[in-house]
Design brief:
255 residues; alpha/beta; eight-stranded parallel beta barrel; 8 strands; 42% helix; globular; binds 1,6-di-O-phosphono-beta-D-fructofuranose
């Protein structure tokens, strides 16, 4: 519901620039390209190339709203650091109401870790997020990453398809999932998600930008709705980040 807030033309295609890794992974992700530690780097790319929205935790969203208010924001409502190594739980940190009324969110996002021993808690929180988002009129993007002791292979096609289906069953508008290994498997993942649109989760930077672009091309051929990508963009120096952004937006949004 409410996808027109992200996609006024109703084409069902999205290119999100993910920038929550400072919390999820830590500042090591910025070391290769120190400029990327400031949100100015991604805000400028988003403004220049027309990404659908940039993904921020609430603190960075506040700063970004001051720095570049015109760039659309997708607020990540839950989050965690990477220091804890047990089965993951990512608590709700920012209510939908705050994301919409104080941070001017175009959409909200929440990471689910199906298979974690904390799955019931996250499912309950997410179900409430979906209901709140309905009241406030914003679309919901679910990061769905099966993970924990019970999950042997989080990129097996049946596991990724299950992830996409969970997003649909729980009411997400868009599911963000890992690459299941090949185009036909991604097609199955999209079918499993029924009306929930499926976008690719970027992953670690590929050595050559072309490798990532080829992957995104396969995603779109398989019925994917686009991408939510971070490191593959902003871990590259500015000129390369601009070049890959141009391609990503062209392929994902069909521009
Ligand atoms: P990348 O494109 O950099 O992989 O970002 C996508 C993303 O989902 C981020 O939003 C999030 O911070 C990170 O990946 C989580 O990655 P991990 O698989 O390590 O939990």
């Amino acid at each position: 519901m409410f996808l027109e807030r992200l996609d006024s033309a109703g084409r069902g295609r999205f290119a999100f620039l993910a920038y929550d890794q400072g919390l999820e992974h830590g500042p090591a992700d910025f070391r290769g390209n120190p400029e990327s530690a400031s949100p100015r780097f991604v805000l400028e790319l988003a403004r220049q190339f027309g990404y659908t929205a940039v993904v921020f935790q609430q603190g960075v969203a506040q700063a970004s709203r001051r720095l570049c208010p015109e760039v659309p924001r997708l607020i990540k409502l839950n989050g965690k650091a990477s220091l804890w190594k047990g089965d993951p739980y990512s608590p709700l940190l920012c209510p939908v109401e705050h994301a919409v009324s104080e941070l001017d969110a175009r959409a909200v996002g929440y990471t689910l870790y199906p298979g974690s021993e904390h799955e019931p808690l996250m499912f309950r929180e997410f179900a409430q997020v979906v209901r709140d988002a309905g009241r406030f009129g914003v679309p919901v993007v679910a990061w769905v990453y099966p993970r924990g002791k019970a999950v042997a292979n989080d990129s097996a096609p049946e596991v990724v398809a299950y992830a996409a289906r969970i997003a649909y069953e729980l009411g997400a508008d868009i599911a963000k999932v890992k690459w299941p290994g090949d185009r036909e498997s991604f097609r199955w993942v999209c079918q499993a998600a029924a009306e929930t649109r499926v976008v690719l989760s970027g992953g670690p930077s590929t050595e050559l930008p072309r490798e990532f672009i080829d992957l995104l091309t396969q995603v779109m051929e398989a019925g994917g709705a686009g991408v939510a990508v971070g490191r593959n963009v902003w871990q590259r120096p500015l000129a390369e980040a601009q070049a890959i952004s141009k391609e990503i937006v062209r392929i994902a949004l069909g521009r």
